[in-house]
Amino acid sequence: MEEKFKTLATEEILGFKQGDISELAPESNNLGWLNLLTFQLILLLKRKLNLSASVQDLMFNKGMPCEALTFGAKGWQKGKVRVKITVEFCPDEPEVEQTSENNESETSPPESPLDDLRRQLLNHENQPNNS
After folding, report:
1. Which of the residues in the chain have pLDDT under 50?
2. How many helices (H) does the chain have, and how many strands (E)?
3. Are strands 64-68 and 77-81 parallel, antiparallel or unpaired?
């Protein structure tokens, strides 16, 4: 089964066991779990790189001047490189897909205990009157 990772928005929340993330956030509390917004995790990763503010601004925002030898190019090209950090999440158990009310789902919804009574009443109404 292929894992399905999806990119998280910067305001989504991640919870980590304290020991699993202590290398990134050693000063965090010792309550056992650390909750971070996705953008906070990205900031921790950038801080761990120990780059000056000006280099971080170039590397992650404006683009740092460089040359690149890319596939299909006829030689080195001058330009800028910028690094983007994305955080992706893959649930252990995939979410159940929602279907619209108008579409028939592959599995029928569970029967209500009143369904038998409804059928009996409909059958009784549809039978000819034997009086």
Report:
1. 105, 131
2. 4, 6
3. antiparallel
